[in-house]
Amino acid sequence: MAKKQKVSEQVVTEALQVARATQRPGQSKEQTKLIAQGIQKGIEEYKKRYKEKTRELDKQKRKLQQAQKADTIDILPEIATENSGQENKLSWILLLLSWIGFAAYAALYNPL
What is the pTM of this model? Predict the structure, then answer.
C-alpha cells in the first residue's frame, strides 16, 4: 500500500497563491486547481529531496568526525610515549645535576 503523506496547510496555500498569481485570462477554476496541485507536488518533492540531501550530508559529517576522532586517539599514545621519554630523561639529568651541586657545595664549604 502506498503511504499517503499529509500536506501542510501552508504548502497548499502557497501553491494556490502561486497558481492564482500565474493565472491566465479565461482560465477556469478547475485548471487553476490542477496547476496548484502540480505546484504543491513540486514543493513536496523539493522538500523531500532537501531532507534526503541534508541527511546524507549529516552522515558524511558524522563519518568525518569519527575518522578524525579515531586518528586523534591513535596519535595520542605516540605523543604520550614521546613526552614520557623526554620527561624521564629530564628528571634524571636534574637529579644528576643536583647531586653534583651538592657534592661541589660539600667539597668547598666542608673541608675534611
Answer: 0.49
